[in-house]
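From the pipeline queue, job 12 of 40. The input is one protein chain; the requested action is below.

Action: predict structure.
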Amino acid sequence: MKVKVWTFLLLALVFGFGMAEGNPRVPKFQVGLDTVALGWPSADEKGGIVSTLGINLGLGIAYKSYFEPLYPEKGSLYWELGTILLIDPYIGVGYDYRINEMFYLGGGVSVYPLHLIGLSLAGGGLGATLGFLYSVFPHIHFGVYLY
């Protein structure tokens, strides 16, 4: 009888630890067709992405911060700041959805204030229209988190 009890306790202990929830997987790198093309995500203690800092396709830097952590199979609104060629700033807002632990997709709108000001001053009504159209950039993006 004691052997059965000890065997049961030993198996319960082994399988209990084996099935216990471990530390969440936290991505070390992000690659995508996004405003942050190559980046390093920061995560909270539960594995949700809270922000990403990296390089964009315009050869500038980019920072994206989520209003709520981005967990697998959940979405979150974000705001972002960045530059193009390190001198042309932009700001943006949008929404990302994390499909699973690896893939995400989303969309947003980025505004380039220097384009808006410069082209608006350049030529009356047509310049103002072109300045607005050239400075507001909607985009759809997707990417992969690497572990």
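Job complete. Residues 25-146 form one domain.
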